[in-house]
Every structure is written in C-alpha cells, then in structure tokens.
Specification:
With 556 residues, this protein is α+β, with helices and mostly antiparallel strands. Helix content is 47%, strand content 11%.
C-alpha cells in the first residue's frame, strides 16, 4: 500500500514553497501593521498647524506703523527692501495739492496699464486732462476716504498700517501707495505677472472633450472652475502654506453635496502642512495622504477643469495650489485611476469597452513579465506543447536565464522611456521608437534575448501607456519589478503570492477614510454602474454611495 501512495506524495520543495506562501503574507502583514502604527503614533513625520489666512489677513507682527510723514515712511521702506534689486520706487507729486507720494512695486509682478490708468492718472490728472472745476474740488484735503471714494477707481484697494506687513506684501507682488499726510499704506490692485496662455492638457490628451487646462495662476484656475457652470454652492476656501516662502492654496467643494466629515478632515490636514516651501501640488499630496509607505497614490492629480468639477459633483474635494497647473482630487479610489473623462463624452458602449480594455491592460502591465518568468523557468508544463516548442527554438543560444534577459530588456525600455521624456519634444518620440527598435533587434541578433520575450516586453510597455494617468503607470512599473523578483524565486507560487499581497494591501488602504478598492470591498452594488462598464447616463441617477454625499440624487 505504501509503495502505491509514496509516489503521489509531493517532494520536499513543494512543502517549502507552501510554507513560504503561508509565512510571507503573515510576516509582511505584521510588518505593515508595525509601520502603520509607527506612522499613526506621531513618531513618524508630522505636520504643524498653519493659519488659513489670506495674504490680506496675514498675522501682524510688532513693529513700526505708517506715520503719515512721507520722508520717514519712505526711508523705512527703502531700508526694508534695500537688498532686493527688483523692487522699484516711483516717486511723484499729487497735482493740485503738492503732496508727495510714491509707488513701491516688484518688477514684473504688477499690471502696469492698470497702475498707469487707475492710479497715476487720477492723482496727476490736473497736469494731463484736469478741468478747472476738477482742480478746485481736488484741492480739498486728501483723506483715506477721499482716495477710496473719489480718486482711485479700483476694485482691489486695501489699507494696511504695519510697515513689516507692507514689506511682505510688496514682495508678494502687491503694489504699495504711500502719501504724505496719509497714516496708512494702500495696496492697489493684485499681483499680475506674465503668464502663459491657456493650452490643451499635455498629460491627459483626449480626442473628444474640452481643450483647456489649468495654468500656474491660482485666480485663473478658480475662474475656470466657475466658468464650468453656474452653481451658487460652489465654495472655495483659501489657505496659506509654506513657512518661509508662502503660497496660496484653495479647497474647492460644493457645499450642499460634500460630506461634512470629509471636508473637516481635508481642512484639518491642509491646515497642518508645515514646510519651508510648497513648490508643487505633489508636495501637498505627499503631506496629506493617509499612508506614505504605500506605492499607490491617494490623491488624483489632473490638469483638466472638467475632471475637477465632475469630481466635485460626486462629493469629492479639489485642491488647487498657486504656481502649478496640476490640481488634486480627494478622496481617490483605484477604479478612478483607470477612468478617463472621455468615457462619459462617448456613448456608453464604446466607453465601457475602452474602460474594460484599460483594466486588462493594467493587469498585463503589472503581471506579464512575472508570468513569463514563472512559465519559462518553473512551469513549462502549463504551456501548450506547440507553444513550448516554439519558445524553446527561439531561446536556443540565449546564455542567460529568463529573469536576467527580462531585466535586461525591461531596464532598457525604462531608460528609453525616461530619455524620451527628458529630450526636446521634436526628437523625444522619434528617439524612443527608433531606439526601441534598434535595441530590440540588436539584442535578438546578438542572442542576448529571445524574440518571444521582445513581444512580451513590447505588450507590457504598450499596456502601461494605455493607463490615463501617468503617475498611476509609474506605480505599476515599480511593482512590476517586484513581481519579477517573486517569480524568479518562487515561480508561479511567488507570482500568485505577489498578486495576493497587492490585493491585501489595497483592501487595507484608505484615502481620507474611503476604502481604496470600493466598490469591490466593501461591496456597494449601486456603485458598480460606473466600474467595469459605464452605464447609460439615464440610469446613473445617484451619486457614488461611497462618498456619502448630502444629496444622493443627481437630479432633484
């Protein structure tokens, strides 16, 4: 009897692989728990509260006040900005009264036409176009109320008395007016530097849809959101971030739709940002995300105003930072990374087909090299006989094991991809295509890699390009190499283990309290209308249940 049973007992290597398959997930799970507890306990990188005041309401510091004595005030201002060669002072005399005045501004950060027409000309109008009645009225004592109500036709005009605050705002780009006898400085207009024109999005190109993208000017970006359509409940809350170099940040949301708890959480995280300089919205994304150890992004970045306004209508929150054309949308789920605005602009059948293709392409971009290594090195018996014979023939003369040849080709493709991005636009795409063809063909001719592997790597690279968001594609590219390592050591067991570990991590991950893989887990069948397929618009009458919006129905 034993002689009959023993041949069917697996070898010791099978039991070792089974033990590793059981122990590895447990070890990684407990390690993840420890790291997550470390981050949440306050011993990891933390943030500190920063006031959510606008530049006009910055906290005043103890110091000198504008006295109304022109010479004294101008001397103090000159001393404060003495180290800045781009700060200019234009002195002049107010016509009809003989008062001395000065404009203080940073070169290139003011609207010269507006300053000339609405500040300089009214104050010097007697010399230019003033009539006798005008001159008589102008000789009345000049007061702050008189300047605001009669002389300066400006919508943006603010009175500030602290010299230190005036210095700070001038360096921010505001134009300062000081005048003899006026015990305050006047900020006229708003910062207005040279900006690029509105262009088509470069990172989210569409065949059908709006052709506009955000710019680097925050006021233009907020106006683009307003121009998407009239909604009195669209609110924008202004913050100031950066402890040394300050920038403005706006939270955009629809007040009667967004979940108040979500809004409170986002406001709390943004208000705690503490860093010298927030150069780009990517800084904000990394400082407010739930788990910075995760390879998956927990805020969606986009250049498209239509995508932001659509997210706001689902109950999400937009984050816009001055100086960058990329806005953030929170919270985010995994399915959002594979969705494109074009899915909704086309009819539901082609939109659904394209979306399902993206899900399949993302799986191929992540798992194809690992599956190749597993089948070729460990489980060739799982491949059909005819295909095995074909692969063996193509691999004759290749001196490297499958994992080495995959690494050689994958690293070459990644280098070409990176070089194509950094090179000038006219030659970047051509270099990538020509370089890939030449390197692939040369590697096959030299016997370094097999032709079948070239096909696998090419399909993998093309699949990664089909992902709408570039940052999501980077995540899959990084994880692809980790999957290749699992496959090289444990074969198909390692490949399956790698995929299960990713699923475990995604099921634990949250974005601002929203489960990352919802509506997969927890299952919300009502949200499946916009998952693998995009249901007809007439059926999608409710907002995503996962967002817990105040108003569930899209139409009242």
């Amino acid at each position: 009897m034993w002689s009959t049973i023993v041949p069917y007992i697996p070898g010791w290597i099978i039991f070792v692989q089974a033990a590793i398959t059981l122990i590895c997930p447990l070890g990684i799970y407990f390690t993840y728990q420890k790291l997550y507890a470390f981050v949440g306990s306050g011993r990891g990188p933390r943030t500190k509260r920063v006031s959510s005041a606008s530049p006009h309401k910055a906290a005043s510091t103890a110091g000198s006040l504008v006295s109304g004595r022109y010479e004294a005030d101008l001397t103090l201002i000159k001393q404060a900005v003495a180290g800045n060669s781009d700060v200019h002072i234009r002195e002049f005399v107010v016509s009809g009264h003989g008062l001395r005045a000065a404009l203080v501004f940073v070169e290139g950060l003011q609207d010269e036409e507006m300053i000339n027409k609405q500040v300089m000309q009214p104050l010097m109008r007697e010399v230019r176009t003033g009539s006798a009645p005008d001159r008589e009225g102008f000789r009345e004592p000049v007061t702050l109320s008189g300047l605001k109500e009669n002389l300066l036709p400006l919508t943006e005009l603010e009175e500030v008395q602290e010299l230190e605050k005036l210095q700070e705002l001038v360096l921010f780009g505001y134009t300062l007016l000081i005048m003899d006898g006026i015990p305050a400085g006047l900020l006229v207009g708003l910062p207005h530097g040279s900006v690029r024109t509105i262009t088509e999005p470069t990172s989210e190109a569409l065949l059908r849809g709006p052709r506009i993208s955000f710019s680097e000017v925050l006021s233009e970006n907020t106006s683009m959101l307003r121009r998407q359509g009239l909604n009195k409940n669209l609110e924008m809350k202004l913050y100031e971030v950066g402890s040394l170099v300050k920038r403005k940040l706006v939270l955009a949301y629809i007040n009667d739709i967004v979940n108040p708890d979500l809004l409170k959480e986002v406001m709390n995280r943004v208000s705690k940002i503490d860093m010298d300089f927030i150069a780009e919205s990517g800084y904000v994304e990394q400082l407010i995300e739930d788990n910075y150890l995760s390879p998956f992004q927990q805020a969606l970045n986009t250049e498209r105003p239509d995508r932001v306004i659509s997210a706001l209508l689902e109950g999400r929150i937009g984050i816009l930072l001055d100086g960058t054309p990329f806005a953030l949308i929170v919270p985010v789920t995994f399915s959002m990374l594979l969705q494109s605005p074009e899915d909704y602009y086309e009819r539901w059948l082609p939109g659904s087909l394209l979306r399902m293709l993206r899900f399949f392409a993302s799986f191929m971009a992540l798992m194809a090299p690992a599956l190749y290594i597993s089948f070729i090195s460990f489980h060739p018996g799982l491949i059909p006989t005819e295909l095995v014979i074909s692969i063996i023939e193509t691999r004759q003369g290749v001196p490297f094991p499958s994992v080495i040849e995959v690494l050689i080709l994958e690293i070459s493709i990644e280098i070409l991809r990176e070089a194509g991005i950094r090179l000038p636009k006219p030659i970047g795409p051509a270099m990538g295509i020509v370089g890939g063809l030449i390197i692939g063909d040369a590697a096959v001719q030299a016997g370094i890699v097999s032709p079948f592997l070239v096909i696998v790597v090419a399909v993998t690279a093309i699949s990664s390009f089909s992902i709408p968001l570039y940052s999501a594609g980077i995540t899959l590219r990084v994880l692809r190499f980790i999957g290749m390592g699992f496959a090289a050591f444990l074969g198909m067991y390692g490949t399956i283990l790698f995929f299960l570990l990713i699923l475990i991590h995604l099921s634990k991950l949250k974005s601002f309290g929203t489960p990352y893989v919802t509506p997969f887990s927890p299952i919300r069948l009502s949200d499946w209308k916009d998952l693998y397929i995009r249901a007809p618009l007439s059926i999608m009458k409710r907002r995503p249940e996962m967002m817990k919006p105040q108003k569930n129905r899209r139409r009242s």
